[in-house]
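If your schedule permits, I should be very grateful for your opinion on a structural question. I have a record of one protein: its chain in single-letter code and its fold written as discrete structure tokens. Kindly check, if you would, that the fold set down in the tokens agrees with what the sequence suggests. I remain grateful for any guidance, and I place the record below:

***
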Amino acid sequence: MENLFETAVSNPIYLAILAIIFILLVYAIIKKIIKLVISLGIILIAYVLYLNYTGQEVPKTVEDLKKSVSGNVDKAKEVASKSIENAKESTRKVVEEKAKEKIDEILSN
């Protein structure tokens, strides 16, 4: 390992290649961070526009924003759990009806 490091550092061509790879790596990382920040900004703007469109109060501070987001997530969880329960219930009813039909069909033969 030391021999490889010494070879890379002593030869200017290898050193230039390592510098280019390092620069490309730093560039790629910065590019990903910029994309993440832009994506989060777009999501935040869309959320504020949604709040404004629905007539809800737009948060003024970061704490208000956290409370608002967590409140909306809780509402979404409640709606999702209710719809899942409704789907379970309707599926159970359909399965029971089909089972009764099959039992009646088998017993009638």
User: Anything to note?
Assistant: The two ends are 81 Å apart (CA to CA). Residues 1-58 form one domain. The CA atoms of residues 51 and 58 lie 6 Å apart.
